[in-house]
Amino acid sequence: MKIGYLGPQGTFSEEASFRYFSDATIKRIPFPTFLDIFEAVQEGEIDQGIVPIENSIEGTVSVVLDGLQIYSDVFIQGEMILDIEQHLLVLENVELETLKEIWSHPQPLAQCRNFIRNLNVKTRSFDSTVAAAHELIRSQNKSVGVIGTSWAAEKLRLHMLASNIHDFPENHTRFVIVRKGEYVSEDAKKTMLLITPSEEHPGVLVNILNVFSALELNLTWLESRPTKKRLGEYQFFMKIEEGLPSERMQKAVRILALYGHSVRVLGSY
Ligand SMILES: O=C(O)C(=O)C[C@]1(C(=O)O)C=C[C@@H](O)C=C1
Questions:
Q1: Which own/partner contact pairs does 43-46 have at CB distance under 8 Å and 24+ positions apart?
Q2: N or C: which end of the chain has fewer CB within 10 A?
Q3: Fold identical between 2-83+171-180 and 191-268?
């Protein structure tokens, strides 16, 4: 089985793939961006992909929601939570005072925003933490620090100038496992939905939320993304702590459809 992850080797995404897929026959394939993973899943080039969807400090990884919006044959078949530790990596003999720039993926840059602000340096975004580390090694730039994993420090022989630099002690990222084709597990405990309201009118979100509340369905995640058609028009991503096969969930989906809302089941696992 082929699994796609955000490469190159040594990213948090690769670590998540090792935690979730323990089978030794799994072939892990690195991709440069999250949307490349979605595309490869949709094209059938890989069987599954693992992508981060939200972080406890920085919140939603919006490009992953866009992937779910755009690639309509791609569904969620599971999730896992990874503890995240961010470290400051530099070349040999570099001091904190000499740093002028910090490089990383946008998510780690945001998870360490206060730390970076105190350094009074510029930031530069890369496709992944490890892509930033490779560029540091290539450029041999002693005024640059990279935020990344302890794997990168060890394997790429970078010096760890500061450890656990994320702004809040609790730092966890939720990853979802995506595949081609609808996925509803019989003993599912969670459901992810993408709801497009029938039309914009006052109270439309309350109308949707009331359906879940009336059926005592526990909503644990709600995120809105623009439809990208008109300013102020949104779609809602929701996570419900109940499997789709349950009577209550079936009822909720039926009622939402009766109200004219479009409901796409992104997966139930
Ligand atoms: O750059 C990496 O190492 C990644 O795997 C990406 C990523 C992310 O996009 O959120 C994954 C988990 C962490 O939250 C930080 C970075």
A1: 44/180, 45/2, 46/2, 46/3, 46/4
A2: N
A3: no
* 3-class secondary-structure state, position 70: helix
CATH number of 87-162: 3.40.190.10
pTM for the full predicted model = 0.94
**Tokens encoding 60:** 């939603």
Would you list the domain boundaries of the chain?
Answer: 2-83+171-180, 87-162, 191-268
Across the chain, the runs of DSSP E, i.e. the strands, are: 2-6, 27-31, 48-55, 59-60, 74-83, 87-90, 101-104, 122-125, 144-148, 159-162, 172-180, 191-196, 219-226, 234-240, 262-268
Give the Å distances, CA to CA, from 206 to 9, 13, 80.
44, 35, 30
In three-state secondary structure terms, 158 is coil
How far, in Å, from the CA of 258 to the mean position of ligand 1?
A: 39
Buried b / exposed e along 112-130 (16+ C-beta atoms within 10 A): beebbeebeeebeebbbbb
- Write the pLDDT tens digit of every residue in 206-232: 999 999 999 999 999 999 999 999 898
34 C-alpha to center of ligand 1: Å? Answer: 10
Atom of ligand 1 at shortest distance to CA of 104?
1
Ligand 1 pocket (Cβ < 6 Å) reads 6, 11-13, 52, 55, 61, 84, 105, 107-108, 128-129, 173
Ligand 1 atom nearest the C-alpha of 13 is: 5
203 confidence band (pLDDT: 50, 70, 90): confident
